[in-house]
Design a protein that fits this description.
The chain has 254 residues and is of the alpha+beta class. The protein has five helices and 15 strands. Strands 10, 11, 12, 13, 14 and 15 form a six-stranded mixed beta sheet that branches.
Length: 254
């Protein structure tokens, strides 16, 4: 009879009769020399527990596999036979009167084993831009480097941008000056500052057009991730195009 009530609820699409049991204290651990994943949880409720299940899949696979949990003392448990390095799963249970389902995780937002660790925001250092313009050209490179710092900070990509003042202090403690950075390798300077990413730039003029070429390096690997260029026939146009160049630059940052 309980199975019939549950089946009718599922087929009808009607809302559940009640909230169902409580699922908490979920635990997962590798067993059988890494060939299995033991999943257990505390599942309880005043109206009993019915059809406790775990649904699992290899990370990013399309379909879930259903496994029934069995009672083991005061917990419900199952061993998933899989040596996939990352497994996504969620738990579901009803009560004996058709209430539920109660869930921990879901098909769209499953639990993950191993658990995903929150990534600390990466630090970005923006160096003072090289100015290869003629001395007669009145252009403020500090303005443009500060503008790029602000654009990266506002990009909402989980990046922490070091302020110009912070960069000055760190360089000073290492016996360096900001103007020395142009003579140093970008990666070396980024590592000196303790940054994960370092952005450098060069300001030039080709014909009648001003150019700002941006580069971003990963200091850990010492590799160039991307470059981008802003261009304009006036300083004002160059300023307007800088945001687009920064967006293009960040597209290649993982």
């Amino acid at each position: 009879m309980k199975t019939l009530v549950l089946a009718l609820l599922l087929l009808s699409g009607l809302p559940a009769l009640a909230a169902g049991p409580t699922i908490d204290a979920v635990q997962a651990a590798r067993v059988d020399f890494g060939n299995g994943l033991a999943v257990s949880a505390s599942i309880r409720g005043p109206k009993g527990v019915f059809a406790p299940m775990v649904y699992w899949r290899a990370a990013k696979a399309k379909a879930y596999t259903a496994e029934g949990l069995t009672k083991d003392k005061d917990r419900y448990a199952v061993t998933i036979v899989s040596n996939e390095p990352v497994i996504e799963y969620f738990l579901e249970a009803w009560d004996e009167q058709g209430g539920g389902p109660a869930r921990v995780g879901s098909a769209k937002e499953p639990l993950t084993f191993p658990e995903k660790k929150a990534q600390a925001p990466r630090r970005v250092a923006v160096l003072e831009f090289e100015n290869e313009l003629d001395k007669s050209e009145k252009i403020d490179r500090v303005y443009f480097s500060d503008a790029v710092r602000g654009l990266i900070s506002d990009s909402k990509r989980g990046l922490t941008v070091m302020s110009r003042e912070n960069v000055l202090v760190l360089l000073s403690s290492s016996g360096k000056k900001l103007e020395d950075c142009a003579a140093l390798c970008e990666v070396e300077t980024g590592r000196l500052l303790g940054a994960d990413l370092v952005v450098s730039g060069r300001m030039t003029k080709v014909g009648r057009r001003y150019k700002l070429t941006l580069r971003v390096h990963a200091t850990g690997e010492g590799v160039l991730l991307a470059s981008a260029q802003a261009s304009g026939e006036s300083v004002e146009q160059l300023d307007d195009e800088t945001g687009k160049a920064v967006n293009k630059l960040l597209e290649s940052v993982p």
